[in-house]
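Usage

Read records sequentially. Each one opens with the input sequence:
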Amino acid sequence: MDLIITIALVYLAYRGYQWYSAMQAQVNQGPPPPPRVDDDTVEISDQPDNDTDYIDYEELP
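and closes with the structure output:
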């Protein structure tokens, strides 16, 4: 009887280790990288395009 319990515990420990290793592999993989932005399509300028590009703050007295 002790031999059956020992074999069952070893089997469960092995299955738990396999599950833990699979979870670690998924966690270490990380999220997918964000989509790449082509540098040719990005336009950078100092002037705002419209009124929503900046916030007007009220002057304090």
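Summary fields computed downstream for this record:
- The chain has a mean pLDDT of 80.
- The longest helix spans residues 2-29.
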